[in-house]
């Protein structure tokens, strides 16, 4: 049986896809990165978003292990 992280590694060509790529794949109901970031900051979506360097202009990314943790937690909460 493959783990969520292994499946994500096959899906994405990078260990840290952009927030846009993650939003387009997993949050299709959210139309903009800004709205997704607002949902994350408000605590309604418990996903870790980082920047590859300290610049404000650096694009937000999501590390695959953080995305896997989020997806696994969602699956567990849905099953309960």
UniProtKB/TrEMBL annotation:
Pfam families registered for this protein in UniProt: PyocinActivator
Gene Ontology BP terms: regulation of DNA-templated transcription
InterPro entries: Tscrpt_reg_PrtN (IPR020518)
Protein name as annotated: Transcriptional regulator
Organism of origin: Pseudomonas libanensis
């Amino acid at each position: 049986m493959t783990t969520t992280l292994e499946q994500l590694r096959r899906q994405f060509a990078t260990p840290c896809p952009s927030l846009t790529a993650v939003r387009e794949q997993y949050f299709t109901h959210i139309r903009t990165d800004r709205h997704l970031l607002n949902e994350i900051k408000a605590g309604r979506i418990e996903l870790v978003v980082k920047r590859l360097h300290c610049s404000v202009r650096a694009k937000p990314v999501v590390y695959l292990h953080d995305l896997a943790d989020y997806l696994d937690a969602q699956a567990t909460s849905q099953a309960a």
